[in-house]
User: What shape does this take?
Amino acid sequence: MPKIARQRVEQNRSQIEQAALSLFTRQGFHGTNIRDIAELAQVSTGAIYTYFPTKDALFESVVHSYEKRIRDWRTKKVKNLGPPFSKRSLGMLAAEIRSFVSEHTDYWKLMYIDVLEFNNRHFASSFHNVPEQFKWRMEAELSEVSANPAWCGIDPGFVLATIYLQILTYFLVERLFGGNQHLGVSDDTAIRRIIDLVLNGLWRSDQGGQPTPAGSSAAKKKSAQTNAAKRKTRPNKLNKPNRVAARNKASK
Assistant: This one.
């Protein structure tokens, strides 16, 4: 096929897919017909059937186009993170997720349409073993984390996937569900606190260890020691002279 003709075909397909995406995300798949798409794309219904034999095929093509876009985005952005569990790298990841959610809201709406009308038949693979998706993109960096003696021992792919999904969920709630600072603080503060929780944990300890579980024998022993120390510093009223009795005796 000549280059010009090939470019024209790609342009026509893209024009039709954009029109279909706009209508699917506003009206749903079953609420949209080919005539609606043809009118918005400014082509004939016959032109649509030239590229897509059915409406289902058109929907699948729209999904695949967007899926490729997000796969490319993940690969590019994740590979540029650097050390994956530094504040700087996680802050960069959060900023990229924020931008992607804001700039591609139709992608997420299309996913919800798929959940409602197709039981997530087209997008399910996107969420299959997310840690493995990160590990093949950052194999060397995550292996280096695992080999570090200071690492906690949890699969770093699992940790990175968990952080990614938490930040993604935060921005989806904010942008698509009208969250309006649903964690009670600004976006920047919320992300900074999420990162701090991941990197520093919940509990403080002078020795750098884990908090003692409440109700354990160690916790009871520590509580007993604390109470004993308080009793030592508390004035002992039994050993004090009874000034009232002394005054009464002196007056006799």
